[in-house]
């Protein structure tokens, strides 16, 4: 077997024959690390091949490919199924990434509980925790059936053997960064190891029709550690995010070969594990201050679901010559731009004020319809006048101070109505796309000057 070494960028997986200070692909410094490149010995491949009667590869027509509708297994968690586009597709490979301690293992153990409870065989491989630790978590989560088998192992060959011998319907690998393949040199978690182990697991998933969940750690920047290549290999990439200190967590699809990636799932972490939050709007608005300036409720769309969130702004005199601006949960540059629009089009003197804008509840939203809410919150705080608590507003703000139409207006309005709001401030151009109702008052605004009259 021929051995050679190459340099891999630990951040993006770029391969080079010589060392470089800066990666030419992702421009990160000091990320090139030498790793041995070995052609796969084929042992794993052989074992997979031997375990099934490998048919001779023959191109197929679309019509000849059988598709059964029950190819999707429900995870038993509605919010997860929504993100997955209906359920877990048989033979698919799913990557779940997220910050340390966010609840990745908890989520997947809960999936294991539900799916094994429905009579499917599952293998849970943990390279991070001992069986006792998993047991402790499982006790918190409830009752498990014997369809779930656990193993604490990091050697990929051993794991492959177990999978081939027991042929479970689903496998969970916790986490891919702890797995190693003896034929590849390099520590577990290195680019070469992560890529090779994922490759082997992918082969198992596709040839044996086993759904494989892999848990991946994320880097400081929030991407799954290891090469980007990992995200290309798998069918679905999910990110579990949220504030580890706050109770709620959001599961977001970043890539999905079987469904849309707009949907999010909202969970709450408690003693019994992760609980689905069926009514995220109510959850996000709980604890809203009464009669406070700088607080306004807006409605954004998360996939097909409207979500009400509170925007808070605090505007105060600057102590330095240079005003401080800060945005949490939304785009900093967008906040600066909107404040410039307020200054120029409404004549609000904000250049001597610090401004802090925050999406309460820790959500991260970058939707243009948020603009009007941000502007209203900033103006309300600047003038120190509270906004009517039973009012919500949404709309995109243009550079000339015009309020532009947004999509899915009817859903937004009905969500506001459902939660008992009395007034909706929306772009005038969007008024035509929603039916008037006597329960809720609609106020169309053309530009920021109109909107400011409401404060
Ligand atoms: N008894 C409990 N009550 C409430 N929440 C708990 C309890 N025990 C653990 N948690 C929550 O579960 C989280 C850990 O979950 P889990 O181990 O699934 O995270 P993880 O994403 O797998 O972490 P890691 O990256 O370390 O593997 C903790 O951060 C804590 O918020
Ligand atoms: Mg874990």
Structural features, described:
- This protein has 455 residues and is of the alpha/beta class.
- It has 3 domains: 2-49, no CATH class; 70-278, P-loop containing nucleotide triphosphate hydrolases (Rossmann fold); 283-452, Ribosomal Protein S5, domain 2, CATH 3.30.230.
- The protein has 12 helices and 23 strands.
- The strands form 6 sheets. A 9-stranded mixed sheet has the order 8-7-9-10-6-11-12-13-14.
- β7 (122-126), α4 (131-141) and β8 (148-152) form a beta-alpha-beta unit.
- α1 runs parallel beside α5 (156-166) and α9 packs across α10.
- The longest helix is centred in the middle third of the chain and has 18 residues, at 191-208.
- The protein is globular.
- The relative contact order is 0.09.
- The model has no long low-confidence stretch (mean pLDDT 88).
- The structure holds adenosine-5'-triphosphate (ATP) and magnesium ion.
- Residues 98, 100-106, 128, 140, 244, 269-271 line the site of adenosine-5'-triphosphate (ATP).
Brief synopsis:
With 455 residues, the protein is of the alpha/beta class. It is built from twelve helices and 23 strands. The protein has helices spanning 43-51, 78-84, 104-117, 131-141, 156-166, 191-208, 229-233, 280-285, 332-346, 371-383, 409-418, 448-452, and strands spanning 3-9, 15-16, 32-38, 72-73, 88-89, 93-98, 122-126, 148-152, 170-174, 211-217, 236-241, 248-256, 264-270, 273-276, 295-302, 305-317, 325-328, 353-359, 391-393, 396-397, 403-404, 423-427, 441-445.
> What percentage of amino acids are in beta strands?
25-35%
Ends apart, CA distance between termini: 75 Å
Mean pLDDT score = 88
What structural category arises from helix and sheet content? alpha/beta
- What CATH calls the topology of the largest domain is Rossmann fold
CATH architecture of the largest domain: 3-Layer(aba) Sandwich
What's the domain count? 3
Attached small molecules: adenosine-5'-triphosphate, magnesium ion
Principal-axes geometry comes out as globular
CATH level-four homologous superfamily name of the largest domain: P-loop containing nucleotide triphosphate hydrolases
CATH class of the largest domain: Alpha Beta
pLDDT < 50 runs, ≥5 residues = none
Please give the share of residues in helix. Answer: 25-40%
Order of the strands making up the biggest sheet: 8-7-9-10-6-11-12-13-14
Count the helices. How many? 12
How many strands? 23
Q: How can the largest sheet be summarized?
A: 9 strands, mixed
């Amino acid at each position: 077997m021929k051995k050679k070494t190459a340099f891999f960028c630990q951040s993006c997986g770029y391969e080079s024959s010589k060392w470089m200070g800066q990666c030419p692909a992702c421009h990160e410094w000091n990320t090139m690390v030498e790793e041995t490149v070995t052609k796969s010995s084929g042992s794993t491949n052989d074992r997979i091949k031997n375990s099934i009667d490998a048919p001779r590869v023959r191109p197929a027509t679309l019509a000849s490919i059988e598709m059964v509708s029950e190819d999707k297994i429900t995870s038993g968690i509605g919010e997860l199924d929504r993100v997955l586009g209906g359920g877990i597709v048989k033979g698919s490979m799913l990557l779940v990434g997220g910050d340390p301690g966010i609840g990745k293992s908890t989520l997947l153990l809960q999936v294991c509980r539900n799916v094994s409870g429905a009579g499917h065989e599952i293998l849970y491989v943990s390279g991070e925790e001992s069986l006792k630790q998993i047991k402790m978590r499982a006790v918190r989560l409830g009752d498990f059936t014997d369809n779930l088998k656990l193993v604490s192992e990091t050697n990929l060959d051993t794991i492959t053997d177990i999978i081939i011998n027991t042929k479970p319907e689903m496998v969970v690998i916790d986490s891919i960064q702890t797995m190693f393949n003896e034929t590849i040199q390099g520590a577990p978690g290195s680019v070469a190891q992560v890529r090779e182990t994922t490759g082997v697991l992918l082969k198992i998933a596709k040839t044996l029709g086993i759904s494989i969940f892999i848990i991946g750690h994320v880097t400081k920047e929030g991407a799954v550690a290891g090469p980007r290549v990992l995200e290309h290999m798998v069918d679905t990439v999910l990110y579990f995010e949220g504030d580890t200190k706050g109770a709620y967590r959001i599961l977001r699809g970043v890539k999905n070969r079987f469904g849309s990636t707009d949907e999010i799932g909202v969970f709450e972490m408690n003693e019994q594990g992760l609980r689905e939050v069926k009514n995220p709007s109510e959850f996000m608005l709980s604890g809203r201050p009464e009669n406070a300036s700088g607080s306004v409720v807006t409605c954004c769309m998360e996939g097909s679901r409207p979500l009400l969130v509170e925007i808070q702004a605090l505007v105060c005199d600057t102590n330095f010559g240079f005003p401080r601006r800060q945005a949490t949960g939304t785009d900093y540059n967008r906040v600066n731009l909107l404040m410039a629009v307020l200054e120029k089009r409404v004549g609000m003197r904000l250049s001597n004020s610090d401004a802090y804008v925050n999406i309460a509840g820790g959500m991260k939203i970058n939707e243009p319809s948020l603009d009007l809410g941000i502007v209203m919150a900033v103006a309300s705080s600047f003038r120190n006048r509270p906004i009517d608590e039973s009012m919500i507003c949404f709309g995109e703000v243009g550079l000339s101070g015009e309020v532009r139409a947004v999509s899915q207006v009817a859903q937004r309005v009905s969500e506001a109505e459902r939660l008992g709001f009395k007034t909706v401030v929306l772009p005038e151009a969007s008024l035509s796309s929603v039916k008037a109702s006597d329960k809720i008052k609609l106020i169309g605004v053309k530009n920021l000057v109109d909107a400011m009259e409401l404060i």
